Amino acid sequence: MFKFPKGGDLHNHLDGAIYAENFIAWGAMDGKCIDLQTYHILMPPCDAELARPALKDIQNNADIVNRIIDALSVRNYERRPVSGHNQFFSTFRRFFPAGIGHEGHMLAEVTTRAAKQNIVYLELMQSWGMTEARELAKNDKAFEIETSFDDLLANSAVKQLVTATISNLDKIEQQWREKLSCETAQAKSGCDVPVRYLAQVIRVFPRDQVLAQTLLAFKLIEQDPRIVGLNFVAPEDNPVALRDYHWQMQMIGELADLIPVAKKGITLHAGELTMGLVPPEDLGWHIREAIEIAGARRIGHGIDVTYDSESLQLMQAMAKEKVMVEINLTSNDVILGVKNQNHPFPAYRKYGVPMAFSTDDEGVSRIDLSHEYQRAVETYDLGYEELKMYSRNALSYSFLAGRDD
Ligand SMILES: [Zn+2]
Predict the structure, then answer these.
(1) Residue 185: which region, alpha, beta or left (left: phi > 0; alpha: psi -120 to 50)?
(2) I want to staple 283 with a disulfide (CB 3.0 to 4.6 A). Which of 130, 260, 272, 307 is the partner?
(3) Dist. CA 53 → ligand 1 center (Å)
(4) Ligand 1 centroid to residue 359 C-alpha, Å
(5) What is the CATH architecture of 8-12+101-396?
(6) How many CB atoms lie within 10 A of CB 73?
(7) pTM of this structure
(8) How do residues 19-38 score in pLDDT, each as one tens digit?
(9) What are the sequence ranges of the domains in the chain?
(10) Between helices 329-336 and 369-380, what is the axis angle to 10°?
(11) What are φ and ψ of residue 300, in 5° steps?
């Protein structure tokens, strides 16, 4: 399965793709610290007496390192009193500080792993510029939702942020290329994996901040061909995400009408929900709204599709309109406890909805895309021809394919 040609990975969060071992190494190199009570990696100064030692001082202590790896991933999560859902989402704030300044190294890790597995394209989600976009909204009343979207698209602070984010991306790619000695005789295999990006909007913040992030995302797609689409991320069951879901779909749809090139690059995490995780009233309509209101061309996860009151019609429409579902089997098992015949994969398959396998967060989940293909074959008894079709989908439904430039 390792060598089977896998097309692309279209649902891959760059920070969640990094294995904890690299975060620990980068933190040690940079003089960062580890809080041994919460297992958050922290910026210096460190203080061993307050249980905040420098990572470089503990990186050869196997006991401590093992505990850190467990805390920064879902490794051994079954043995802990915390749910897979909570453990999964809690890892991101623990490792986030370790990645600062190493974004190009992250690309090196992920492209190297992809090349080894015969993955020929990556569409990586990242939030570069999004913290700054939220700051813009906090400091400028124009982002309150009464302002017209046309005015906001012409906002000079947004334009400046777009320029700064693009030049930051240049630097990140330069770090990646240098790390892998690209453009030299010693170029490593990761140099040859084409990478494009999806701007990820973090959807659990106040509306003006989500709007500012979305404006940045759309303008990045418009101005830089490396950024081919956007996604909305963070737990869909978060109270703000649930409260604002309908508004967020409307906002995306209205902005997309103003920026036609970006309209082709909308993929949304939708329906990553199950009975019990949220009230029944929140089940069975997010996928439909993502497609019909926001104009999503792809759906991430799509787990609650069978709760839609017209689920058969919805799946037939997805098949007809070629709306693809990004299938993340391990992530769905860990976060939602949904697997095997309880997963909607067999239903989507039955009604001919296009699908492709993806990793979601291969570092946090301690997997890779080969593992996901293997899991799919074993769980759903897929034949070679069908597997090839999913692999092809992961290229033909990429947003690179949809662009003219
Ligand atoms: Zn995801």
Answers:
(1) alpha
(2) 307
(3) 32
(4) 8
(5) Alpha-Beta Barrel (3.20)
(6) 25
(7) 0.96
(8) 999 999 999 999 999 999 99
(9) 8-12+101-396, 21-99
(10) 80
(11) -90, 125
